[in-house]
Fold this sequence. Notes:
By secondary structure, the chain is of the alpha/beta class. The chain has 14 helices and 16 strands. β1, α1 and β2 form a beta-alpha-beta unit.
Amino acid sequence: MKILKFGGTSVGTSDRFKALVNLVADEESKLVVLSAMAGMTDTLVEIIEFLYQNKKKNATGVINASKKKYYRIIDELYVSDEWKKKATEMVDSHFAYIMSFTFKIFTKLQEKAILAQGELISTALFHYLLNEQKIDSVLISALNFMRIDKDGEPDYFYIRENLERELEKVKGAKFFITQGYICRNVYGEVDNLKRGGSDYTASIIGSVVNAEEVQIWTDINGFRNNDPRYVDNTRVIHELSFDEAAELAYFGAKILHPTSIFPCKEKNIPVRLKNTLNPDDPGTLITDKYSEQGIKAIAAKDGIIVIKIKSTRMLLAYGFLKRVFEIFEIYKTSIDMITTSEVAVSLTVDNPMYLKEIENELRKFGIVEIEKGQSIICVVGDFFAERKGYTLRILNALKEIPIRMISYGGSWYNISVLINTKHKKQALQTLNDHLFNCK
Ligand code: ASP
Ligand code: MG
């Protein structure tokens, strides 16, 4: 079986929904994972914010406007009155549920239940469309099998048992649909895999059913070798290894949710990135193979904060770094880059949530300096053959740009530098010119 995940833009309009039917309606056994329609999760977040602020009128306004959009889609999507009516009733019941929160005291728990409505609606609309066109498919609710544990990690045992049971109920069926992103937590409450989590859903499912392949369909052709928003002359990379793809996804290439590589890597299930607007393009294939050595791609991640701890007394003492890291562990803040010297250690984080608390704790060790507005530029490739001088070429390309930190040797697949975000565009372009277009 193949797992095919389609993002919000692939179900963003009635035309895209119809195109999707043509794309998936063949004889192959498949499970389709859908996101909410483009913009819907953002709309739900907006509603939630109004509810928290007790601005019920504003919340009601957004709810009604959003519902109207679905009515229009329904009208364009279905041919028969029968399915138009069914779809309208379905949409009405989801919106009545969302609306019910404008009459109640609002809590965190209900927030997750509201966020789940986007995927519940999009999958039902698609299932109805297939039904109207007499294409057999089975809609399985992700809430019946997708589950996270107390640390928010997928509970693979539970997911496998329950998905197998769901599939067993409809033995013989070949075409399944489910929601991305949404799940239940250890208490059985509705929860989610965090924003952009539908890719993760697809790869978790791929891993538990031992899929032949996991396909992530978006509206671009695959991983590019640089960010086309900032750089001219970029191209698609047709083959990447799991490690390279994970580095790229983590360090800014928006096409794939970073954690979604790991479940497939563990089971060695190929991941293919495809474009719904250009389905014949081969896209990017991610496997355990390293297709070639050398530099393959560049990505940038913004919103990075550097924290420098200067301590003449303690840095040389063993156990110092452990105590520093413990503070980050307590505040569940992960560190991206780290460099050390005799008297100071600099590290970067991208989550500002507990920055003040972390800073206060770190002060016990020495002088703490914090700088915001930084970007990590990550150069990905197979650098195993370092004798070819890749590092020198990268640094040479960046010679006009002030570099704040360098990380080299953490893995064979990545060299990262930290720069001020104001130099990002220039850094991406000059790296592109020097590394790919051989200036
Ligand atoms: N609908 C969710 C979001 O917008 C999940 C996803 O699209 O992957 O974040
Ligand atoms: Mg996405």
